[in-house]
């Protein structure tokens, strides 16, 4: 009797662990997507391996450009956020709430948007827009421009986005500091030099 009870308990635990206890996040719910609305990237998403994209948005390798139309594939266990672009390329962001200091639902909400690219990039001067599309941040850009080019700074390094310094990873071991005066970038400093 005890053996059967123990076996039943272990089976139940196995099902919970195998299926995952976390509530799956649905893109359309996280973004409050209306009927017929498309989903786009809200900033340049950097990667070296499309199947292993860091949620820290390490500025290395290639990137999925801001305003790229995507199709959600789903979210899964162990923080996997799966999507594909209109060309059919598959991507997986490895989300970690411990390094982003937010929920997966919040992360999806500020990584993707239903705002079309022409609205998202509206009123940005042409030279600045070129730099954003190249994934560059330079002095004179405003905070919105930096968010479009680099994405939100990882909260583990920049816990308050109202601060005058935002830190981003260039590689897993190198960091860049974006320094603001008011709303404008004053300097972009590679602190590894």
Helix and strand arrangement:
Layout: H1 2-19, H2 27-30, E1 39-41, E2 45-47, E3 53-54, E4 62-64, E5 69-75, E6 80-85, E7 90-94, H3 97-100, H4 104-111, E8 112-113, H5 117-120, H6 126-133, H7 143-150, E9 165-169, E10 175-181, E11 184-190
Parallel strand pairs: 3-7
Antiparallel strand pairs: 1-5, 1-8, 2-4, 5-6, 6-7, 9-10, 10-11
Helix pairs in contact: 6-7
Mean pLDDT: 88
Helix share bin: 25-40%
Total number of domains: 1
Run of helices and strands? HHEEEEEEEHHEHHHEEE
Main pleated sheet: 6 strands, mixed
Organism: Victivallis vadensis
Protein name: SmpA/OmlA family protein
Keywords: Signal
Signal peptide: 1-22
Write up what this structure looks like.
Keywords: Signal. It comes from Victivallis vadensis. Residues 1-22 form the signal peptide. This is SmpA/OmlA family protein. The chain has helices at 2-19, 27-30, 97-100, 104-111, 117-120, 126-133, 143-150, and strands at residues 39-41, 45-47, 53-54, 62-64, 69-75, 80-85, 90-94, 112-113, 165-169, 175-181, 184-190. A hairpin with a 2-residue loop joins β10 (175-181) and β11. The chain has one domain (24-190). The longest helix has 18 residues, at 2-19. 28% of the residues lie in helices and 26% in strands. The chain is globular. It has 193 residues and is α+β, with helices and mostly antiparallel strands. It contains 7 helices and 11 strands. The strands form 3 sheets. A 6-stranded mixed beta sheet has the order 3-7-6-5-1-8. Residues 15-21 have low confidence and may be disordered.
């Amino acid at each position: 009797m005890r053996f059967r009870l123990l076996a039943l308990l272990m089976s139940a635990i196995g099902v919970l662990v195998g299926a995952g206890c976390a509530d799956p996040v649905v893109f359309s719910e996280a973004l409050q997507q209306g009927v017929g609305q498309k989903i786009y990237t809200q900033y340049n998403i950097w990667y070296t391996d499309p199947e292993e994209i860091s949620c820290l948005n390490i500025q290395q390798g290639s990137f999925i450009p801001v305003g790229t139309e995507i199709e959600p594939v789903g979210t899964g266990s162990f923080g996997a956020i799966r999507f594909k672009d209109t060309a059919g390329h598959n991507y997986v962001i490895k989300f970690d709430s411990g390094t982003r200091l937010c929920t997966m639902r919040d992360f999806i909400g500020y990584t993707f948007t239903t705002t079309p690219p022409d609205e998202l990039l509206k009123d940005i001067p042409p030279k600045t827009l070129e730099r954003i599309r190249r994934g560059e941040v330079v002095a004179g850009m405003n905070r919105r421009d930096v968010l479009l080019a680099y994405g939100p700074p990882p909260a583990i390094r920049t816990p308050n986005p109202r601060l005058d310094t935002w830190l981003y990873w260039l590689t897993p071991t190198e960091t860049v500091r974006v320094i603001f005066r008011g709303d404008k970038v004053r300097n972009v400093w590679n602190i590894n030099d």
